[in-house]
Each structure stands twice: as C-alpha cells, then as structure tokens.
Amino acid sequence: MFDRFLRPKLGTPEPMSSPQHEPRPPATSAEGDTATVRRIVAKLEEMPPQRARLIASAAYTLARAAHADLAISDEETAAIERELQAHHEIDEATAVLVTEMAKLQAKTVGGTEDYVVTREFKAIATEAQRLDVMRACFAIGAANGTISAEESAILNQIASELRFDDAQLNEIRSVFHDQLSSVQQIRRVT
User: Fold this and answer.
1) Which domains does the chain have, with CATH numbers?
2) CA torsion 107→112→117→122, rounded to 10°?
3) pLDDT at residue 42 above 50?
4) Of 14, 110, 165, 181, which is least packed with CB atoms within 10 Å of its CB?
5) Residue 68: CA atoms inside 13 Å, Cβ hemisphere, count?
6) How many C-alpha atoms does 118 have within 13 Å on its Cβ side?
7) N-term to C-term CA, the chain
8) pTM
9) What does the alpha-carbon distance between residue 43 and residue 155 come to, in Å, rounded to a whole number?
C-alpha cells in the first residue's frame, strides 16, 4: 500500500523542475533529511511483512478517522503518531513517516480503499488490536475537543467494518460522551 511512496513506478517520468522555483535548502540539510528517511524506510522494509501490513492498515484506518471532516489537523496528526508509537512499538521518526504516508493516502484515495484497508486490518489484527484502533479512532476524532456528526458517522462505519456490535461500540463511545457534538449542542441549549 505504501510502496508507491517509497519506490517510484518504473517508467514514471520525474517531475521537470521549473527555473522559477524556491531556493533549495543547503545540501547538508537535504542530505541529512534524505539519510533519515532512508534509515526509516530501511527499518520498515526489515519488518516482517505481516507486521508492516498491520501497522500500515492501522495507520490508514486512523488517518481515515481523522479525515472524516475532510481535514486532518495538527492535533489529529499528533494523536495518530502517539497511537502508533504506543500500540505498535515503533519509534517517533517511523511513526511520523507512517502517519504522513497514511494521511496522504486517506486524503487522495478514500472511497473503496477505506473499506478494503479496514477489512484487511480486521483480518490480520487480534480483537485487542482492533479495540485499540477503534478507541484510537475516537481519541483522534476528539483531539480538537469535539467529535462532529461527520466524524461520528465515519466512526460508526469503521466500527461496523471491524465487526463491533452495538454494545462494544457504545462502551467505547461512552468514554467520549462529552466530546460528541450532539451532546455539546444539547448542553448549550439547556
């Protein structure tokens, strides 16, 4: 899934540079960044394929939850990175790279891919891992203090695709009750 960002397709022309572009940063900075990215990519490639698929599909599912309102905030990005580090035992630099790739995928692909990736995650994850990701999806939705109606709808859809029943979903949702926009609206009225 993330290979398209790590290895360009054969025969794909490189973008032509325009003579009127922003000045490049010093070569040492770019080389340092490139070396860092290469080290992270090497770590990802060293992972057993099953573990890499688990991390990639979890990251995409989290990014999908963050993108429910068609924007991914800095708070949501930081929450995805924290969740990946906490539940998938990857370092911060790797979590940042995986998060950025997942965000780009969620923003540009979406649609059927949402279902396909979430279904793949369900197939390879344990029930505990699925619960962790579902809780994380809610935490990411609540990162700005409110889970909007759009976010709630996507969270319901993800829960359905992960095969959580209403009781399981409601148990997770109860933790985030005060962040639900509908609850916040009612409290403002009363």
Assistant:
1) 38-189 (1.10.3680.10)
2) 130
3) yes
4) 14
5) 24
6) 27
7) 48
8) 0.77
9) 31
